[in-house]
Amino acid sequence: MNPALPRRVTVHLLFRTPAGPRLLGARVLYGQDPATLARTLGGLPPDAPLRALDVITEVASTPGRNPTPLHVDRVVFATPDAAAHWPAILPPQGLEPGLAELLPEEPEPEGPLPRLRRMASYGVVTDPAGRIMLSLIADGFPGAGTWHLPGGGVDAGEDVRSALRREVLEETGQHGVVGRLITVSSHHRTPPNAGEVYAVWVFSHVHVAHPAPARVLEKGGSTADCAWFTPEQLAGLRLSTTTRRGLEFLIRG
Q1: What is the pTM assigned to this prediction?
Q2: For a Cys staple, 155 with which of 1, 17, 96, 184, CB 3.0–4.6 Å?
């Protein structure tokens, strides 16, 4: 993986118009929520229902005499009545905005504190018995002592599904199949005396057909322990913000 690879996020909305289905896209700037931006693209009300259809990762070079490699994660939403048109509506030239439009850096505000940006992929990991796998956040990390959805940051050059399979194996020792996309949301906070943090969170279902002993494989990472839980046991656990968010989206969907 190349940590210096420039990265961008775009959002795309598929929706119906009197003339037929339409697909629009825009760059997601720092602090913007992808779903909120998608509704703005389509002129939809703030509470309009959307379905997350896909997250497409492109690693390519910009055209021209001095090509620049770029990693782009493209988040695709649709209104429920238009979702059936995906992916047939994909244009032959690819999704817009294109690489050349995405290359310029965003202006960074002046200030003494860092401004952190992250793309992360998390899984609601289940087994045939209906249990849910959670990982315990280690001391010294944000959310220490809470039970977390397996997952984490997407490396440069990596897609969200590959990242999730890798993280589930490292944090829980399980080989899972990444299934349907649950949703894509964002997390934006400014901790006291710390830098601003903005993340795009991708939530997917992961099924483990043949559960292995729950064990943390990564050494010195953010995971202290892991375990399977029944849905009834979740109410007695300290759950991380990410876990609560992912399960709420799952139940709502």
Answers
A1: 0.93
A2: 1
